[in-house]
Design a protein that fits this description.
This is Outer membrane protein (OmpH-like). One of its GO terms (molecular function) is unfolded protein binding. Keywords: Coiled coil, Signal. The protein has about 250 residues and is mainly alpha-helical. The protein has 2 domains: about 30 residues; about 160 residues, Skp domain (Protein Binding, DinI Protein, Chain A), CATH 3.30.910. Helix content is about 75%, strand content about 5%. The chain has a two-stranded parallel ribbon with strand order 1-2. The termini are far apart.
Length: about 250
């Protein structure tokens, strides 16, 4: 029972305030405990989860790198047909083969004329006679030898021409590599430099099938490679000449 100096209403108000403070302290304690549990749960991450997180961060960092920040590749082009058509050392060999071919064609013409004369003479003879039979055998022999000689010469000329272009291309490859390495070039593409003839189907097809559609003139190394090859030829000729001269002195 409350004392008379304190009104019943005042006593009830004090008790109510005291109860509210206790409830507040209990609620704050529960909230603090919940935060502590969450903090402990966030720290207790498995090693696998940590690795996945690190990997994801690295991937995101790599994706953020601009392609312009990465080292690029240097590309050049070369007109191979222009080199073969204009390099003096290759053209000298081609002219030599053509001269041999022209000489062979002259010999073939003489043999063909002789064969035609023998065939005309055969037509003027009486079939079945001994002279006719001998002439007939002669014509057949001349024709067989001419065909065999033409086939052999043609094969020899083709092999000689193929060797010229094969050896020339090997030299060209070595020169392109030397120029590319010296200039830090990673890739050299073949360039078709011939002008297209709209009236010729083959010319149009070659133009359409070109490997390079567009290139800047600054990446064309055709002239540089030709100068390199020409210098090699001159150096080789000078060395051969000096060797021959020293051999003569001995």
């Amino acid at each position: 029972m409350f004392q008379s100096q304190i009104s019943p209403g005042g006593s009830m108000e004090v008790e109510r305030c005291s109860g509210q403070r206790s409830a507040t302290r209990r609620a704050f304690g529960r909230a603090a405990l919940a935060c502590a549990v969450l903090a402990v749960g966030s720290v207790a991450i498995s090693p696998a989860s940590a690795q996945q997180t690190a990997s994801a961060q690295q991937t995101a960092s790599a994706q953020q790198v601009s392609p312009m920040d990465q080292p690029g590749h240097r590309i050049a082009v070369i007109d191979v047909s222009h080199v073969f058509k204009n390099l003096p050392s290759i053209q000298a060999q081609v002219r030599k083969v053509k001269a041999e071919l022209a000489k062979h064609e002259a010999e073939v013409k003489q043999k063909r004329d002789a064969l035609n004369q023998a065939a005309i003479r055969l037509k003027s003879m009486t079939p079945g006679t001994a002279a006719y039979n001998r002439q007939e055998e002669l014509v057949a022999e001349m024709d067989s030898k001419l065909r065999l000689d033409m086939r052999r010469r043609h094969s020899a000329m083709s092999e000689a021409e193929a060797k010229i272009y094969y050896d020339g291309y090997q030299r060209l490859q070595a020169a392109v590599k030397a120029v590319a390495v010296h200039n830090n070039i990673n890739v050299v593409l073949r360039l078709g430099g011939d002008d297209v003839d709209p009236q010729q189907n083959d010319s149009v097809i070659r133009h359409v099938m070109r490997n390079v559609v567009y290139h800047d003139a600054g990446i064309n190394i055709t002239d540089t490679v030709m100068r390199y090859l020409q210098q090699q030829t001159e150096t080789s000729q000078a060395a051969t000449g000096s060797g021959a001269a020293s051999g003569t002195r001995r």
